[in-house]
Design goal:
5-stranded parallel sheet; 3-stranded antiparallel sheet; Adenylate kinase; alpha/beta; 212 residues; nucleotide-binding; Rossmann fold
């Protein structure tokens, strides 16, 4: 079984990916892990990726695609299947993935799309605050400190609402054409992500059972 998981930052994609891997025994292929492994093993694409990263530059698509291709060609994929997490990030990468799968004689069985309203994600992602003295982390809504005084806390730039909104907007713009592409192929299962983690996973399992 070969799957792709998609969802906006904060939608719980990582949590559900871990549960899918544990339940179904597929190989978890996340972009970060792939890059680290390729560089550690000094594969052709790993060495190339490292040359860009060391210079502080973005890794070009052709190198990222090459690392994905190297990973999907490994023996465990044919034995166990895979769950792709964090790739493709652009429609161009999605088209490249189509070609890679054809080249390797593999087929994508389904796309699990974790859906959460972006306004909920904005609240979820921009609520983190840090105590200036202790460095302890809290959340304004989900884990507020008992003695909250605004002047005692600060937010990292990454957590500020305007930064989070920008990140979400970019992800939405990049993700929409990818989802549309896979919808045309009849591969997308939409999962409501704004519910209890176990309820989300129950829906994920139903979607995977329908795929199988």
């Amino acid at each position: 079984m070969n799957l792709l998981i998609m969802g906006l930052p904060g939608a719980g994609k990582g949590t559900q990916a871990a549960k899918i891997v544990e339940e179904f025994g597929v190989a978890h292929i996340s972009t970060g892990d792939m890059f680290r492994a390729a560089m550690a093993n000094q594969t052709e694409m790993g060495v190339l990726a490292k040359s860009f990263i060391d210079k502080g530059e973005l890794v070009p698509d052709e190198v990222t695609n090459g690392i994905v291709k190297e990973r999907l060609a490994q023996d465990d994929i044919k034995e166990k299947g895979f769950l792709l997490d964090g790739f493709p990030r652009t429609i161009e990468q999605a088209h490249s993935l189509d070609q890679i799968l054809v080249y390797l004689g593999l087929e994508l069985d389904g796309v699990i799309n974790i859906e959460v309203d972006p306004s909920c994600l904005l609240e979820r992602l921009s609520g983190r605050i840090i105590h200036r003295e202790t460095g302890e982390t809290y959340h304004k809504v989900f884990n507020p400190p008992a003695d909250y005084k605004e002047e005692d806390y600060y937010q990292r730039e990454d957590d500020k609402p305007e930064t989070v909104k920008r990140r979400l907007d970019v992800n939405i713009a990049q993700g929409e054409p990818i989802i549309a592409h896979y919808r045309e192929l009849g591969l997308v299962s939409d999962i409501q992500g704004n519910q209890d983690i176990d309820d989300v996973f129950a829906d994920v399992k139903k979607a995977i059972a329908a795929i199988k």
